[in-house]
Amino acid sequence: MGAFHSAWALVILTVAQAAGPDSQKQASPALPAYPDHTRLLVIRDASGQEQPVASPADWAVRRAHIMAHFEQVAGPFPGGERRVRLDVETVEEHREPRYVRKKVRFAVEPGDRVPAWLLVPHADPPQLEKRPGMLCLHQTIAIGKDEPAGLGPNPELAYARELADHGYVCIVPDYPNFGEYKVDPYAMGYASATMKGIWNHLRAVDLLASLPEVDPGRLGVIGHSLGGHNAIFAALYDPRLRAVVSSCGFCSFTHYYHGNVLGWSHRGYMPLLKTRYDLDLSRIPFDFPELIAALAPRAFFTNSPLHDDNFAVAGVRDAISAAQTVYDLHHASSRLIALHPDAKHSFPAPARRAAYDFLDAQLLKPK
Q1: What gap in Å lies between CA 307 and CA 288, rounded to an integer?
Q2: How far are the Cα atoms of 58, 176, 278, 288, 290 from residue 250, in angstroms, in the given order?
Q3: Are 43 and 61 in contact (CB under 8 A)?
Q4: Closest to 248 measured CA to CA, from 288, 332, 194, 304
Q5: Is the Cβ–Cβ distance between 250 and 292 less than 8 Å?
């Protein structure tokens, strides 16, 4: 744990140095470009000269470049000025057979409170140890947090309910402008709804880790579609999330609708993809192979069906193959798992069971 957090501190420092005080500006000459986002085991300097990544310490430098490039599109990660006391308010409470479902609202930054479901398994008197916790993120659906909590029409996506039944404490927040949460991230100074979501999700992890029922050393994140890539984005910034499950959440940009990334550029995601980079893949400074690799050596599982119309399986395989080189570098090859069921944009029961087995292997035992 200590070595990992030391490397994390180096990454944050290097990102700050590379991106500068205003990472919404064009990349400075100090931040090198990487034309091939699948060629990960190299570090470039501003002139394009390369040296190999031969160790996890080398990788920390490349990872810092990846994070800085991501912020060129998503905007800067908020500083401490936005961190306020959580001030959790319980709005309503429902007793289910195996857990209590509470609707809560909590402060994420000055003047902004996020609604969420909190699912807490019933206490078992003979079993006093703390439980693992999960951040559960919803897909693009009007009811937002209600679907993972089991209140929507599709039981296939009720993964928070299933995990709570299984003994996990789960928090399920609304993403900006879904469910009960209406907010304008741009009026609040964000360059993207993506970065606002990241900040909110990390504050949800703060809440989860603060609960007396939760072991803060055993936390993970799961999501489908919109929630699938938000799980990746949140984990990039929060090393407390030891295990990541992304269902139908990504593929390389080159395989996303044959390279047309317009869908990533609306106000619910990252508008700078269009306004700064003109949707030009040769100019966009990051891609998902880099983001998956940037999670190493933490455990990552993807459910990526063969017939997903949103995220082509060929682009998932490209990303996983590239990221595998970084997991191998960290001697963590077994922590990178990709499942490709014969299905469309869905999270079928066998894939969910495999995902839960993966989470159990990573989180059930105290670290």
Answers
A1: 19
A2: 26, 20, 21, 7, 12
A3: yes
A4: 304
A5: yes
pLDDT digits (tens, 9 = 90+) for 274-332: 999 999 999 999 999 999 999 999 999 999 999 999 999 999 999 999 999 999 999 99
Q: CB neighbours of 267 closer than 8 A, spacing ≥ 6?
A: 186, 193
Q: How many CB atoms lie within 10 A of CB 204?
A: 26
Burial of 64 (0-12, 13-18, 19+ CB in 10 A): buried
Q: Evaluate whether 180 touches 139 at the Cβ level (below 8 Å).
A: no
From the list 331, 270, 264, 243, the residue with the least C-alpha distance to 75 is 270
Contact 168, 221 (CB under 8 A): no
Q: How far apart are CA 299 and CA 301, in angstroms?
A: 7
What token pair was written down for 70?
Answer: 């991501």
- Asked whether the whole model's pTM tops 0.85, one would answer yes
CA distances from 279 to 127, 148, 164, 253, 339 (A): 53, 32, 40, 10, 30
C-beta of residue 72 within 8 angstroms of C-beta of residue 27: yes
Query: Which pair of structure tokens corresponds to residue 185?
Result: 């991230």
DSSP track, 98-159: SEEEEEEEEEEETTEEEEEEEEEEPPBTTB-SPEEEEEEE--S-TTGGGTTTT-SS-GGG-H
Residue with tokens 């060129």: 72
- According to DSSP, residue 32 is labeled -
